[in-house]
Specification:
alpha/beta; about 35% helix; elongated; three-stranded mixed β-sheet
Length: about 90
């Protein structure tokens, strides 16, 4: 919903130009963190951005802990696209 928020905050001319000639967003599948290791997810993994002819493709790193795990069982961690990053792409 970062895209919707950014569109609501964007100056009218920016939004009109983006809708006319800009490339939107493609949301890809989440990328699992290597070994489901928390510190790797926190300090190494980041959102992946790949520009192509039709859009800016974005994928989030994800870490899912086992429901019977010893540390933070049953959690789903992911990183979110910032509305500021969306506005940056629109401009």
């Amino acid at each position: 919903h970062s895209v919707q928020l950014a569109e609501a905050l964007a100056p009218k001319q920016t939004l009109e130009r983006f809708r006319r000639i800009g490339r939107g967003w493609c949301f890809e599948e989440d990328t699992p963190t290597l070994g489901n290791i928390g510190p790797v997810w926190v300090f190494h993994d980041a959102l992946s951005f790949k520009e192509n002819a039709t859009c800016m493709a974005v994928s989030s790193p994800v870490l899912k802990t086992e429901i019977d795990g010893k540390i933070f069982p049953g959690n789903h961690y992911c990183k979110f696209l910032s509305p500021a990053r969306v506005l940056d792409w629109m401009m």
